[in-house]
Write a structure and sequence with these properties.
- It is a single chain.
- The chain is an alpha/beta fold.
- The chain is globular and about 60 Å long.
- It is built from 18 helices and 14 strands.
- The strands form 3 sheets. The chain has a 6-stranded parallel beta sheet with strand order 2-1-3-4-5-6. A 6-stranded parallel beta sheet has the order 11-8-7-12-13-14.
- Helix 2 crosses helix 13, helix 3 packs across helix 5 and helix 5 runs parallel beside helix 6.
Length: 401
């Protein structure tokens, strides 16, 4: 399979050229840093963690990049009203459709257009990383199109990859035959850095921490996270929660786009008021680029945070990482890969030093790496059996693992 269409998650914040002329390329975002421009840019990717999912899927496989592309196939369907000509573009120009997914199994999410694409597709379909938003007793709360989408994938997809054991178990309980827990493709990028992670052995004050979470208005989680890092050198990375400050930031200069940094004198008072406490963070970041995200993490020492893909970026550069969680999505992925994790409540009750001693010990890190090696090999086996090839870096790392 040399011509791949990656049909779901974007890998960066870029505008797509809608007319689609041959050899054309979508444009990067402008240098505008107004709140409205940043908000518009956000909707090019949705949650910024999605960039890591899309990027991971695109970069770990070996294929002809001149004849492959990223394409929101459901948007194509809507734009051309499902015409046969539009669907034939997929069938005639690609050898497979790869669908990197996230928490697609949830109420109030309409998959009608994607389902219509799949019903007309003639090339193999590979699904990666599909997961549940929250636990459900049955499928009664799902949109009918979501149920039909799951059935199509189960019956027709070459690979029905889900992100963890809970999603696989629930789907099989619902009668589906082929879901396989393979994890998130973002975790398969830079395995050499992940496998080189060592446990932090010094006192917390000897490290620069980076974290991510939910610094939202009246957020208990945000207040807990701030308390957890009090007295430490720590940076905070915003994702979608920055857009809760629309009224306060509209019309103000608050972001240095070259450094991906919020202006401290603007954002800090807003955060303090939002969580009702003094936030200890001395730097605040926001990323439209996964490369900038990783480069920033590279001058930090430890990641502990309440965002799984914020932690993935840290793992990709080899930082010792622990995940705090309050929902199924984060818990499922952390458990599947063995990344050290616990609830936000427990970590904050323990305090940072005790937390690191228990959850970031060498024994915990070694257990994580053992699980990760197993997941890496399992992912490779399933995808190569399906006819996809991995890059030579991935192959070399697999041999070493």
């Amino acid at each position: 399979m040399k011509r791949l269409c990656f049909g779901r998650q974007p890998a960066d914040t870029r505008y797509r050229y809608h007319p689609g002329m041959p050899f054309s390329e979508g444009l990067p975002r402008s240098n505008s840093t107004t709140f409205s421009t940043m908000s518009r840019n956000f909707y090019l990717t949705s949650n910024k963690g999605n960039m890591l999912i899309g990027e991971g899927s695109c970069r770990i496989f070996d294929y002809d990049r001149n004849y492959s592309c990223m394409l929101s196939v459901h948007v194509l369907y809507d734009a051309y009203k499902g015409s046969k000509e539009a669907m034939d573009l997929l069938n005639n120009n690609f050898d497979a459709l790869v669908l990197p997914m996230a928490n697609e199994i949830r109420p109030n999410l309409n998959h009608v257009s994607l389902l219509k694409v799949l019903e007309q597709i003639k090339i193999p379909v590979v699904v990666l990383g599909m997961g549940m938003q929250n636990e459900m007793e049955d499928m009664s709360t799902l949109e009918p199109a979501t149920v039909d989408l799951l059935r199509w994938i189960d019956e027709r997809a070459l690979v029905f990859g889900v992100r963890g054991a809970q999603t696989e178990t629930w789907l099989k309980k619902m009668g589906f035959k082929n879901p396989t827990a393979l994890g998130c493709p973002s975790m398969m990028l830079y395995p050499e850095n992940i496998l080189g992670i060592k446990a932090p052995t010094k006192k917390p004050e000897d490290y620069r921490f980076v974290t991510a979470g939910y610094l939202q208005k009246k957020s208990v989680r945000g207040k807990q996270l701030a308390k957890f890092f009090t007295g430490q050198k720590c940076s905070y990375v915003f994702q979608d929660e920055i857009f809760q400050f629309k009224e306060e930031l509209q019309g103000r200069h608050f972001f240095d786009d070259a450094r991906n940094r919020m202006l401290q004198n603007v954002i800090e008072p807003l955060v303090n008021e939002a969580i009702g406490a003094e936030a200890p963070f001395d730097k605040y970041f926001y990323f439209d680029s996964v490369d900038a995200w990783r480069q920033c993490y590279g001058w930090h020492d430890v990641f502990i945070g309440d965002r799984f893909h914020g932690g993935v970026a840290a793992l990709q550069v080899g930082l010792p990482t622990a995940i705090l969680f309050k929902d199924l999505r984060v818990k499922e992925l952390s458990e599947f890969f063995g990344v050290p994790h616990t609830t936000v409540d427990k970590a904050c009750n323990m305090g940072l030093e005790a937390f690191m001693a228990e959850f970031m010990s060498q024994a915990r890190i070694d257990a994580f790496l053992d699980t990760y090696r197993m997941r890496l090999k399992n992912f490779h086996r399933h995808l190569t059996e399906a006819g996809l090839s991995m890059t030579e870096n991935y192959q070399a790392m697999l041999m070493a693992a």
